[in-house]
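Colleagues,

For the teaching module next term, I've prepared a clean inverse folding example: a structure given as tokens, and then the sequence designed for it. I'd like students to try predicting residues themselves before seeing the answer, so please don't circulate the second half yet.
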């Protein structure tokens, strides 16, 4: 007997499912949902059997593509041998231990200690909890504030949302006594009349002024995505991360690099912090591509120095999730990394991701395309009403949604985000599918433009 529901049956059952980041009222009224019930490689299929290029890799996560037999087998074999055991107290198991060791070799510098959780949000929460514990152990409990940035997305737990751009949480008043947001690093929108180097100087001045105002003695961490993802794929000015790290070091503030999206091949390397941006942060958080989304897993990778302090004799580390380092999730990650290494996927992305970027940058000639930004398989397209003044479309135009809908009608799933469209496909897109993606986007934008 099959319990699988499809099409209308799913939609009826779905009356009970609360969607994330959705207009719940609109969903209740029009019930417009896409039922995805099958996937293979770079493609997904809906309940009517229609095929789509998965232009968002699920949610920036299915890096090795859908339906990879060896990941599924690794998960199954792990469950048959050991379904669950915790990594609490003094318990451990081979899959998590092996994965931690592997991540320590892949992560830059002296990031050799790994704390597992089940989501990017929990990885970022864990980073802050670890740093609070660290500063308490050093006898400076007031050193607990966090510097984040306008435009950032760090997750949806209370703390991770507090570190996310205030646009998401303004009415929810998330932990404003704990987190301060620095200026957005988006040069194209925020640069004014400045050159890019001048804009970078202004951003560094903003960082230094805020440290002086809040007091370095009160600040535990600065958190930044190498490239902002859900904020619209925002690339900071060249040299931003290096200079921010120097300022953090000078003020004894720990630098957390949120690589939930940018790691595991998306920018052509296992981690982007050092290999792309030239920095060795104090902590890297990651999730998504760590298992290519086959299992929920995240990692908070911390330096030897932080680990040495939190493991001194004395107070216990009172932090933990039942499913930290779940065997099936760790097995998925081990198999995922082995597959990426064997196939040289990150290296391939240096060619295919660049081709994807170039193909999408080609859309800049269209009248309503204001900026195409990002890198490799992480691209944002911002639409504007007027290219010279960069005037945005009114919210009611719903431009991002309109283009996403037109693209979906043509067989491409893309993610609308206000006036932008985000593309973050699987890393196994063939050259033909790259061309097809660009062609669908061109036709979709042109159609929407014509109907405005
Ligand atoms: N950090 C970044 C950069 C993200 O893009 C996300 C999710 O999109 C998160 C953290 C939160 O991850 P999760 O949704 O797994 O909690």
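(Answer key — instructors only)
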């Amino acid at each position: 007997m099959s319990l699988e529901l499809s099409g209308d049956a799913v939609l009826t059952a779905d009356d009970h499912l609360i969607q994330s980041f959705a207009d719940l009222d609109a969903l209740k009224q029009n019930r417009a949902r896409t039922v995805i019930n099958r996937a293979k490689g770079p493609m997904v299929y809906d309940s009517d059997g229609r095929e789509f290029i998965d232009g968002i890799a699920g949610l920036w996560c299915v890096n090795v593509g859908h339906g990879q037999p060896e990941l599924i087998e690794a998960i199954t074999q792990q469950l048959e041998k050991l379904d669950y055991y915790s990594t609490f107290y003094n318990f451990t198991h081979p899959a998590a231990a092996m994965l931690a060791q592997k991540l320590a070799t892949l992560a830059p510098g002296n990031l050799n200690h790994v704390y597992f959780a089940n989501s990017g949000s929990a990885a970022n929460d864990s980073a802050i909890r670890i740093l609070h514990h660290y500063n308490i152990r050093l006898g400076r409990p007031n050193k607990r504030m966090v510097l984040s940035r306008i435009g950032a997305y760090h997750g949806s737990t209370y703390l991770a949302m507090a570190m996310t751009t205030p646009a998401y949480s303004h009415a929810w008043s998330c932990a404003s006594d704990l987190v301060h947001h620095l200026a957005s690093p988006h040069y194209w929108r925020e640069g004014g009349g400045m050159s890019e180097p001048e804009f970078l100087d202004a951003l560094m001045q903003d960082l230094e002024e805020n440290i002086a105002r809040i007091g370095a003695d009160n600040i535990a961490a600065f958190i930044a995505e190498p490239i902002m993802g859900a904020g619209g794929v925002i690339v900071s000015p060249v040299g931003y991360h290096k200079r921010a790290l120097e300022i953090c070091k000078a003020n004894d503030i720990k630098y957390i690099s949120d690589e939930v999206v940018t790691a595991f091949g998306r920018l052509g390397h296992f981690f982007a912090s050092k290999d792309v941006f030239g920095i060795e942060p104090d902590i890297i958080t990651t999730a998504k591509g760590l298992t290519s989304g086959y299992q929920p897993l995240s990692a908070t990778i911390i330096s030897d120095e932080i680990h040495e302090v939190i493991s001194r004799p004395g107070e216990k580390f009172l932090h933990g999730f039942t499913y930290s380092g779940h065997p099936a999730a760790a097995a998925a990650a081990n198999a995922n990394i082995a597959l990426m290494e064997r196939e040289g996927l990150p290296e391939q992305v240096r060619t295919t991701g660049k081709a994807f970027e170039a193909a999408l940058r080609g859309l800049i000639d269209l009248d309503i395309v204001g900026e195409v930004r990002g890198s490799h398989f992480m691209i944002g397209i911002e639409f504007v009403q007027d290219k010279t003044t960069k005037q945005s479309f009114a919210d009611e135009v719903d431009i991002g949604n309109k283009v996403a809908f037109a693209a979906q009608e043509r067989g491409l799933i893309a993610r609308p985000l206000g006036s932008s469209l985000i593309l973050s496909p699987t890393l196994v897109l063939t050259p033909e599918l790259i061309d097809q993606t660009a062609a669908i986007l061109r036709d979709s934008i042109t159609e929407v433009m014509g109907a405005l």
